[in-house]
Amino acid sequence: MSPPHIALTFDDNYWAPAYAVMRSICLASRRPADLNFYLIHIGLDPVHRAELDAIAAEFPATLHHIDLSTEPAYRDLVSDLPIAPPFTPVIYARLLLDRLLPKDVERVLYLDSDTFVRVPVEDLLATDLEGKAIGAVLDAHRHIHMFRRDLKANRDVFDYNFPYFNSGVLLIDRTAYAAANLPARAREMQQNGLLKRLQYDQALLNLAFRDNWLPLDYRWNLINPEPAHEMLEPFILHYTGPRKPWSILPGAAFGRLYRHVMTNRNFKTFQRQRFIRALLSPLAPFAGKS
User: Fold this and answer.
1) Which residue range is the domain that position 160 belongs to?
2) In CATH, what number is assigned to the domain containing residue 18?
3) Which residues, other chains included, contact 58 with Cβ-Cβ below 8 Å and sequence gap of 6+?
């Protein structure tokens, strides 16, 4: 049985949510000793790295750090790609997963850092992809993502019935993912101006794998979850909306449980850091997106 491989990409703005993702996985797993986490990050404070490494002290999981500042492929890729708040260039790192991960990793689960896992991820990793490159969940907000305001943009790119998935949870076949040559596609879309019109890497992934992805049960990526969604018993929550479980706004599903998974100490530390960053950058308040 292959060990579960999980990859996250983030910068220092998301160290505590990344910690919560890992800890939620370890708590729910039947095989915590087999878990391999690939933490692909940039600008990570050494103190925060130590907090992440504490996962391996509490659980028998293995952590692998990949510092993007030492990866020429990342620097070359993001040097001229478009980006705007709340996103940061680190979102493009997942286009390089096949190049950044060890060669023996054949299948990997990619997770955004604003997710929360409630069931064993090994169940998802055991899914038969039926020859497809990736497994993902159809995005319930896909029409706004594709066509923007009044559904008038990008109709030369997408059809209304385009099967657009959310890329925050991706089950990936490494060989097929590599065959798509995503960095080359990103450069091509940048040069022809298409990438700037679209939803950055998520749109790129949708175009690259249009006919090469397996639809997963929506419970593997329940986006923008609110308390009423708790009765659906979601497998993975994805806090895509303004109600983050670490924000001062109430209304995030399983918010109280999430706080305890992050641990109250890390939760309070993260809250203070966000408040200070907001004060120091009043014209660009922290809203990092991994």
Assistant:
1) 5-280
2) 3.90.550.10
3) 23, 26
In a domain, 211, yes or no: yes
Q: Given a cut of 50, is residue 288 above it in pLDDT?
A: no
Q: How far is CA 176 from CA 3, 7, 203, 282, in A?
A: 19, 17, 18, 44
Give 120 or 274, the one with higher predicted confidence. 120
Write the single-letter amino acid at 114: D
CB 274 within 8 A of CB 286: yes
DSSP classification of residue 161: T
The residue with tokens 């391999």 is 36
What is the C-alpha to C-alpha distance for residues 73 and 265, in angstroms, rounded to an integer?
36
Q: Is the pLDDT of residue 284 over 60?
A: no
Q: pLDDT tens digits for 188-227?
A: 999 999 999 998 899 999 999 999 999 999 999 999 999 9
In a domain, 267, yes or no: yes
Measured distance CA(169)–CA(175) in Å, rounded? 18
* Residues 201 and 91 sit within 8 Å (Cβ to Cβ): yes
Q: Are strands 107-111 and 5-11 parallel, antiparallel or unpaired?
A: parallel
Amino acid (one-letter) located at 36: N
